[in-house]
Structure formats: C-alpha cells, structure tokens
Write a structure and sequence with these properties.
Blueprint: E1 24-29, E2 32-37, H1 40-57, E3 62-64, E4 69-70, E5 77-78, E6 82-85, E7 97-98, E8 102-108, H2 114-127, E9 132-137, E10 142-150, E11 154-161, E12 165-170, E13 173-178
Parallel strand pairs: 4-7, 8-9
Antiparallel strand pairs: 1-2, 3-6, 4-5, 6-8, 9-10, 10-11, 12-13
Length: 189
Amino acid sequence: MAVTVMDAPSAWDVLDGVTLPRGYRVEITDGKIIMTPQGEYRWKVILEAAPQIRQQLAARGDILSDVMIDFPSSQYGYAPDLAIIAPGAERNGRGRFEWHSLEAVLEVVPKSSRDNDFAKKFRLYAGCVIPVYGVIDPEAGVCTVHRHPARTGTYDEVEVPFGADLLLPLAGREIAVRTGGFPKAGELG
C-alpha cells in the first residue's frame, strides 16, 4: 500500500517539549488538552485484545496502543486505545503515523468519556474515512463496530455482546477478536 505522507500541522504540536505524567491518557479534543487516569478495565481489555490482533495481522500491518496519531486538524489529537496500522504505512516528518494510515481504531469507553468516544471521535473518525471504529463498553458488556464510513460523519454499525467474536473487516482480510475474556464493569476486585 503506497501512502502519501501529508506532514500537516498537528494538534500534538502544542505539547512539543512537554514531559507528560505517567499513568494518564492525554488527548486533545476541541483544542483542549484532556488528561484522564488509565483505568483497570481499559488495560485488561487492551491486554486481552492486542495479542490476538497482532497474531492475526501476521506482519501485514501493525498494532499500536496509546500512541499519538496525527489527524487533519489542529483541534484534535488522539492516541487510540488500539490502532491497527495499514501494511506499508509510513511515518511523517514528526515520526508519527497519520489518520490515513489507520485501518481500524478500537476505544475502550469508560463512563467518564462517553461523549468524547461516542460523539466527537465518531464524527472525526468517520470524516477521516477510517474504515473501522470499534467501541468496547465494559459497563454494557458490548462492542459496537462502526464500518463503511461516510465523510458526512456517519458509519453503519453492528453490536457484538461480550462472549461473541468481534469481527474487524480490514482490507483483504478479517480479524476476529475473542471477547469472552473482556471484563465487565463490576467483575474486577
């Protein structure tokens, strides 16, 4: 896959030279820097899903977690919980991948960021035509897979309950993530 690297201005530029605190997720939404503590449910889901995805990618792409991605906006800087990078994607001049390198994004949604994950990220990811956006909700015990994006900011969606396979349709292949090990709210210690 040949990808043109845009190297456009990035929302992340405001944080150049800033040492970020460990244990917090940092993103930029509507031009505001948002820091949230990393939650146990989120980490358990990531630790369960990432190895499954990596194995099935079999060197046809890559998977990243909490890594800054450059989007075509100075108001939005996201570091998805899990980002599947397309085979052959290249980094820009800042050493980061850009939105057009993403085949899929998965976000684990704590109650405190529902507006951000269900609304703002949904519109941005669809507008950037990211092929697959999955929202994993430990409180509801369900994953919602958004596919077939439209630049108008919409997707088709399919809900998958925890326990069923989460199917991620990528270019020329499909990744199946077993969700039976995903923790539901109230199940941890």
